[in-house]
Design brief:
- The protein contains 13 helices and 25 strands.
- It is an alpha+beta fold.
- Strands 8, 9, 10, 12 and 13 form a five-stranded antiparallel β-sheet that branches. A four-stranded mixed β-sheet has the order 11-2-1-14. A four-stranded antiparallel β-sheet has the order 15-18-25-19.
- The radius of gyration is 30 Å and the shape is elongated.
């Protein structure tokens, strides 16, 4: 007994130590952050504490989390760092803080670049293809978290006599006064406005901060009855738009940012297959993606790698453009020039300091990892193994479920109950349930397809699995499901019916688990009931003949009499892209498990819920 207790204690100790093991990257970043803080480089300290948390998003990074929060709270309180500052020191330190802030975000990109690589067209004669890269830019999670604290703190402290820090900072640089980049109080009619900036340097790289001269509007001179362009000095990292003239002389705005980059397609071994030309992120247009690039004449072998997911898009290099823009960008006279970025100086951004692809807040990741550990245990208890096999699907007595045909399905795992209100709230973070009746033990209802897909992808990520569904931009009928991924997804209609029949057991019952409907579904009611309170079927799966109707992935359609393997109907009616619902709702009469109906993807009802499966192919 004593030995057994010692073994248990040893295992518990080892587990605890394992949970709080710290990576070398985390230790190095934490040490560097402390050094920055000791040198009163508070912006760099804040950013490096954040990086340390991102390197170890668990309780193991608690010291870095606490240090970040302490420094962030002090800044939110109006202090430019840790310590006490008198009325003169606080201005001087905020001035230094703002300059350091502009320098930091020159070195570290404040933007995250999201991308999409997809086939554009093919040439059958040459057996080559063109692939389109779509790129869009968003503020990074790191920037949003840090800037929230900085802007709140500066707003709390700023005084009207702080002439060295523009009220609109960081939309105007703290170097504005130093570079004389302010609006003149007195204009002379007919004066050359450009001479006002004669003292401004050509490169605008001040103390490591990249700056940009931006057109900011018109100053109207009442005596001359004509506008004069007004320029300001802006931190290049924060520029979101710039003006230019189209071929018809119209003033237009380019939205995006001053990042210029190259991307590459690499194979599974990291070998570069194709590299793009330079792509300006000062894009625009109606697309949700700000910039696009076409890789042309991709060979057949590379096409197969891209289409199968064995080749992917990576960042090759990134640059921040800054300086005095060429005439075509801001002039009221010059024609449009798409090569406008070329004359600008640039700062190369270290790829390691650039957010490429999906971005996640480091502190959210800490919370998600803790939640994920809990959910892994929950899902391990809820998922049932369903061994694959062949069965006769359908019911010739029901027109909608005929003809009966032979179907083979691969092995998969299915949730033994419908997704509950409780699980939904844990995964989505919603505080309230959904539907008229919100008991945590009841199925989640009133969810549309997009919300279900988001739930499945997030639950997959929380459990360290590969999400099945592609990104959700655009029409829901275009979303793809990767059945090879091990994440959670909706069942196909064939998987649903195979499981309802008891899998390989192929139980000869009218309902899922019994010929007595009340044994497996209870009596008809005005509301759903708690999951798993009635008799399960032979696989130990509950409520497949009652409670709520359950969503399947297939589009609505008729059966074929042909024998098929792992079928899924991906063809939809463009005017009404409905998907299959199986099971009967709590307020309906008795139905066999072959009963079929359909749902629209854009809405959910009190009687519509779902359960999830996992591929094991």
């Amino acid at each position: 007994m004593k030995l057994k207790k010692m073994i248990v204690a040893s295992v518990a100790f080892a587990t605890t130590m394992g949970l709080f093991a710290q990576s070398e990257d985390y230790k190095a970043l934490l040490a560097k952050a402390k050094e920055y803080e000791g040198n009163k480089q508070f912006v760099y300290a804040l950013g490096t504490y954040y990086d340390a948390v991102a390197a170890e998003p668990s309780e193991a990074s608690k010291e870095a989390q606490d240090a970040f929060n302490t420094l962030s709270d002090s800044i939110k309180d109006g202090k430019p760092g840790i310590g006490e500052f008198d009325e003169f020191e606080i201005y001087d330190n905020w001035l230094a803080f703002c300059k350091e802030y502009e320098k930091y975000w020159t070195e570290y990109s404040p933007r995250a670049i999201f991308y999409k690589l997809e086939r554009d067209s093919i040439d059958r004669a040459t057996k080559t293809g063109n692939y389109k890269v779509s790129l869009k830019v968003e503020w990074s999670a790191k920037y949003k978290r840090i800037s929230e604290a900085v802007l709140a703190g500066l707003e709390k402290s700023w005084k009207d006599d702080w002439t060295g820090i523009p009220k609109r900072w960081p939309n105007e640089s703290v170097y504005m006064a130093e570079l004389k980049g302010v609006r003149p109080k007195n204009f002379t009619s007919g004066a050359d406005f450009g001479r006002y900036f004669a003292s401004v340097t050509d490169t605008y790289l001040k103390d490591g901060a990249a700056l940009f001269q931006k057109y900011a509007g018109d100053y109207y001179d009442e005596k001359a009855f004509r506008p004069y362009p007004y320029y300001s000095i802006v931190p290049a990292a924060f520029v979101e738009s710039a003006y230019s003239i189209d071929n018809f002389g119209n003033l237009i705005s380019k939205t995006g940012c001053l990042i210029d980059l190259k991307v590459k397609i690499v194979d599974a071994n990291g070998k570069t297959l194709y590299t793009s030309n330079r792509i300006s992120m000062m894009g625009g247009g109606n697309s949700i993606y700000g910039s696009e690039y076409i890789f042309k004449n991709i060979d057949q072998a590379s096409m197969k790698l891209i289409d199968s997911g064995e080749a992917k898009l990576e960042l090759d290099s990134a640059f921040l453009e800054y300086g005095n823009p060429p005439k075509s960008l801001v002039s009221f006279e010059a024609p449009e020039d798409r090569t406008w970025v070329k004359p600008l100086p640039e700062v190369k951004i270290d790829n390691a300091k650039f957010v490429w692809g999906k971005d996640k807040d480091a502190f959210d990741a800490v919370a998600d990892n803790a939640l994920g550990e809990m959910l892994k245990k929950t899902m391990a208890e809820l998922m049932v193994d369903v061994e694959g096999g062949t069965f006769q699907m359908g019911d010739n007595e029901d027109e909608d479920a005929s003809p009966v045909h032979s179907v083979t399905v691969s092995s998969f795992k299915m949730m033994k109950c419908e997704v509950t209100q409780s699980l939904w709230k844990q995964v989505t973070g919603e505080k309230e349930g959904r539907g008229t009746y919100e008991d945590d033990t009841m199925p989640i209802v009133r969810v549309n397809l997009k919300q279900v897909i988001e739930f499945c992808n997030r639950l997959s990520e929380l459990n360290g699995l590969t999400p099945c569904y592609s990104e959700l931009d655009g029409n829901m009928k275009d979303v793809k499901c990767n059945f090879k991924a091990n994440g959670y997804r909706l069942p196909t209609e064939a998987e649903w019916e195979y499981a309802a029949r008891g899998g390989k057991n192929n139980s000869p019952f009218k309902y899922s688990g019994s010929d007595n409907w009340e044994e497996v579904a209870g009596k008809s009611s005005y509301k759903p009931h708690a999951v798993m309170i009635y008799k399960p079927n032979a696989l130990g799966i509950y409520d497949m003949s009652g409670n709520v109707k359950e969503m399947c992935w297939d589009f609505d359609g008729e059966y074929s009499s042909n024998a098929v393997s792992d079928p899924v109907n991906t063809k939809s009616d463009d005017y009404s892209p409905s998907r299959i619902l199986r099971d009967r709702a709590y307020d309906e009469s008795e139905r066999p498990f072959t009963y079929r109906t359909a749902y629209g993807s854009d809405y959910g009802l009190d009687g519509y819920g779902f359960r999830i499966v996992q591929s094991v192919r």
